[in-house]
Amino acid sequence: MKRTSTRLADGREILYYDADADDGADGGAARAVPDTRPLDASATPCEVRRDPLLGDAVVIASHRQARTYLPPADACPLCPSTEGHASEIPAPDYDVVVFENRFPSLAGDTGRCEVICFTSDHRTSFAQLDEERAALVLAAWTDRTAELSAREGVRQVYCFENRGTEIGVTLAHPHGQVYAFPFITPRTTRMLATVAAHRARTGGNLFEEVLAAERAEGTRVVLEGEHWTAFVPYAARWPYEVHLYPHRRTADLTTLDDAARAEFPRLYLELLRRFDRLFDAPAPTPYISAWHQAPASGEGRADFALHLELFTVRRTADKLKYLAGTESGMEAYMNDVRPEDAAVRLREVASR
Q1: Residue 62: its pLDDT value, please?
Q2: Is 332 helix (H, G, I), strand (E, B) or coil?
Q3: What's the pLDDT score for residue 28?
């Protein structure tokens, strides 16, 4: 892999990740295409407030009201630039690219938000990538986790993909995001507390025990390799939800071993393709794919387990799972699909 860093017209960083180390070998000139757009320096008045009753951090980022919203394909800001269209990516082509978000939720002292484009092809999806490209995306996620975690004030790095307008996606181009939080997120805080209590009570690691129990019981296992297992969790919140764990527990992507890293692209692509075959629907399955990583530092890091959570808001071909009164109001989830039945369906749609 070759990484080339340069700047956009308003000073934001952009990084090109190339699978072929020879790409851009002439001093990075192939990737150092200047951004000629007349952009003013971006104004990002982000603010983190703390809920006095729950203790949760809430980000206030009112400038995001003006962000780009569902542009036509020929005006996509994530496609490579052409003679008639200057986009966020000045180069005429790319493998994987990461750049600072023009409309970030977190910036400056409050953290950082990056966009990661998985391919220059506007018409495809992550599920349609080949294993080499998926491995390059994994390498980019790992690089961003390492670099952002080392920044002063960053407490947790979160890599994720939103796919589909049903999720709230505003750009159709295949892409994800990387957030560097100045706080440990509420979900991770709750996990850490539960895991710490279990350690104090039993001496064991709860993540390891959950994975071992799912592998042994087997009814909710969807896909299993030599180094990873994917399963529907016992108390799944979403109609179709899969958790993907490496067999060797590790804190984050930077410490994932080579064997698990090599196997990941095949298994992950198969999971995404199964999600696209779940429903007889004209549109691709909307989903959120979320890497759960340990905090960048602190006591909780030692007991945490890197894992990926993949879920869809679609419960049938023509029905969505909305977070209504119980979920949004009280955080009490009600699932319409039995987890064991979801696992059966996800095994039925395996690639032949």
Answers
A1: 87
A2: coil
A3: 59
Strand partners, 175: 117
The confidence score (pLDDT) of residue 24 equals 47
Q: Is 153 exposed, middle or buried (0-12, 13-18, 19+ CB in 10 A)?
A: middle
C-alpha–C-alpha distance, residues 142 and 12, integer Å:
20
Stretches where the chain sits below pLDDT 50 are: 24-27
Q: State whether residue 17 is helix, strand or coil.
A: strand
Which tens digits make up the pLDDT trace of 16-43?
A: 999 986 654 444 567 889 999 999 877 7
| Alpha-carbon torsion (86, 87, 88, 94), positive or negative | negative
How many degrees, rounded to 5, is the angle at CA 93 between CA 121 and CA 70? Answer: 45
Q: Give the per-residue pLDDT at 45.
A: 83
Q: Which of 175, 227, 247, 307 is catalytic?
A: 175
Tokens of 281: 């629907």
The token pair at 111 is: 């953290």
CA–chain centroid gap for 278, Å, is 21
Looking at residue 281, its pLDDT comes to: 79
d(CA 76, CA 231): 36
Nearest to 96 by CA among 161, 49, 149: 161
Active site residue 175: yes
CA distance 44 to 59: 12
Nearest Cα neighbor of 305 from 229, 201, 200, 225 is: 229
pTM: predicted TM-score of the whole model, two decimal places: 0.95
Kindly give the pairing relationship between strand 156-163 and strand 96-100.
Answer: unpaired
pLDDT of 22 reads 64
Q: Give the separation between CA 94 and CA 79, rounded to whole angstroms.
A: 9
Nearest alpha-carbon partner for 178 in 267, 94, 90, 253: 253
State the Cα–Cα distance between residues 351 and 127, nearest whole angstrom.
12
